[in-house]
Amino acid sequence: EHSGNDNKGVDNFNPPESWKRVTAVMMIRAGCKDLEIMKTACVARNTVKSIRSELEESNNDYEKDDPEFVEKLQKKVQEDPSKSCTKLAEELGVGNTTVRVCINEDLRYHFYKRRKGQILTEKAQENQFNKALKLHEPERLAAQLPRLQPVRLLPMGRG
How does pLDDT run across 15-33, given as a tens digit for each residue? Predict the structure, then answer.
C-alpha cells in the first residue's frame, strides 16, 4: 500500500550526469534559453555554455572537409597572414576550432609562422648586426670601434 508521500521522492530526484547533458543538448537544439536549461536539466550556466559551444563547433565540422571552404580560408590567410583565427572564423561564419584545424591539417600552415615577420628598418638592422657582433666577438669589435672598451668577465664569487 502506498502512503501518498511518493511525490517527495520525485521532487528530490537528481538525474545522472549523462541524462543532464542529453537534456541540455535537446533543449539547446529546441532553442531554449540558458536559464530555462539550467533549471530543467539541473546544470550550471558554464555547463550550458560549454555544451552550446561544443554543438556550434560540431555543426561546422563538415565544413573543414569541403574543398571550397578550404580554398576560401586559404585566400583569406594569404590576403592577411596576420589576421587572427578568431577573426577568420567570424568572417567565414564557422567556429574557431574549425579554422584552427583546417589551417593546421588541410593547409599545413603553422599558426605562428604564418604571421608576417617584423619588418626591420635599415637602422634597426644595423643595430641588430652590431649587437650580434658584440655578443660573438667583443675584443675584435672593440678594436674596430675605439669608443668601446673591451669587457673582461670575471667568474662570480672571486675577489
Answer: 788 788 888 888 888 888 9
- Neighbouring C-beta atoms of residue 141, cutoff 10 Å: 16
Query: pTM for the complete prediction?
Result: 0.36
Rg of the chain, C-alpha, whole Å: 30
**Whole-Å CA distances, 136 to 73, 130, 132:** 43, 10, 6
Residue 29 C-alpha cell reads as 537544439
13: exposed, middle or buried (Cβ count in 10 Å: 0-12, 13-18, 19+):
exposed
Task: Show me where the domains of the chain are located.
Answer: 7-59, 61-106, 118-150
58: how many CB neighbours lie within 10 A of its CB? 12
pLDDT score at 34? 92
Q: How far is CA 43 from CA 4, 34, 58, in A?
A: 29, 10, 21
